[in-house]
Write a structure and sequence with these properties.
21% of the residues lie in helices and 43% in strands. It is of the alpha+beta class and 141 residues long. The protein has a single domain, classed as Nuclear Transport Factor 2, Chain: A (Roll). The protein has a six-stranded mixed beta sheet, with helices on one face. Strand 5 and strand 6 form a beta hairpin. The model has no long low-confidence stretch (mean pLDDT 92). This is SgcJ/EcaC family oxidoreductase. It comes from Cupriavidus cauae.
Length: 141
């Protein structure tokens, strides 16, 4: 990626193609990832190992739609990015078709001219009173 904002679409496209090789290419070798359930892994190999089984099973027909919230430049070689991510699960999921919104925080750094994800954390949007997952539109008062 030549610009950090490209990560948003590249992440979405790799997910929607269920292409773990393209997914791995988004991350630095020593990147960290916290999934929406709080599981922490370190290293691109572990990130792929966490995602490959779900793309072969429950998320095999899922799609993501990402929407940029904000990019904060830390320096010429580092940014912090927040974006909405809507996961739409299909019939392969045990709960059947449904959508889940998350907010993703990603730290991207540039090395040798290319931007990659150094750290990513994914948080499910929930109702703060009940803990029940909500779509972001449902939380607007």
């Amino acid at each position: 990626m030549k610009h950090p904002e490209e990560a948003l679409r590249a992440f979405q496209n790799a997910w929607n193609r269920h292409d773990m090789e393209s997914f791995a290419a988004l991350f630095h070798e020593d990147a960290t990832f916290v999934n929406r359930f709080g599981r922490y892994v370190r290293g691109v190999e572990a990130i792929v190992e966490m995602h490959a089984p779900i793309h072969a099973t429950i998320y095999s027909d899922s799609t993501l739609e990402n929407e940029l919230i904000h990019v904060v430049t830390i320096g010429p070689e580092a940014v912090v990015m927040h974006f909405w991510s809507r996961l739409t699960a299909g019939t392969a999921h045990p709960a059947g078709p449904h959508a889940v919104d998350t907010v993703i925080l990603a730290v991207l750094t540039r090395q040798e001219g290319d931007w990659r994800i150094k750290a990513l954390e994914n948080v499910t949007v929930t109702d703060p009173r009940t803990g029940e997952p909500k779509l972001r539109e449902e939380l607007k008062d």
